[in-house]
What we know:
Layout lengths: L1 E6 L1 H6 L1 E12 L5 E12 L8 E4 L15 E7 L5 E4 L2 E8 L1 H6 L1 E5 L6 E5 L8 E4 L14 E7 L7 H5 L1
Parallel strand pairs: 1-5, 7-11
Antiparallel strand pairs: 2-3, 4-5, 6-7, 8-9, 10-11
Amino acid sequence: MHARIAIGLEDAFHGATIGVDLALPEYDRNGYLQNRKRSIQVKVPKGVSAGKRIRLAGQGGTGYNGGMAGDLYLEIELKPHRLFQVDGKDVLLTLPVSPWEAALGGKVKVPTLAGQVELTVPAGARTGQKLRLKGRGLGPAGKPAGDQIVVLKIVLPAADTDEEIVR
């Protein structure tokens, strides 16, 4: 049997055990195919990416004429994230920077799936410039992880008071 499950990006990055409700087709004792609802606990391995499959031995539907249960294959989909986008094993983030940070360069705090890190913005940076945080993307345990790609976006800070507008 095959099914798709959607998981959060944090669960894919860190690994997790999640509850999944599935409607799996099964043959009843009269030989008719019917959907049966099942709730199962699935261990999501650390660093799993979209399109990967998790095999659950013996968790599929029952065989014909009372035969052994088959395997259940769950294909991973990643839910949209409010900050990050995923491109294979790489994680992309659009980072707003002020004009003076872009012109002069400097250190800025950047969110990653593993927590905040400090990133050096080079002097003369421009909108659309990509900076790489090596190994901060997705990747299965024991294999090299993808990278986090930070795409700079120069934005003007909002003026909240009349004094700031006049300056």
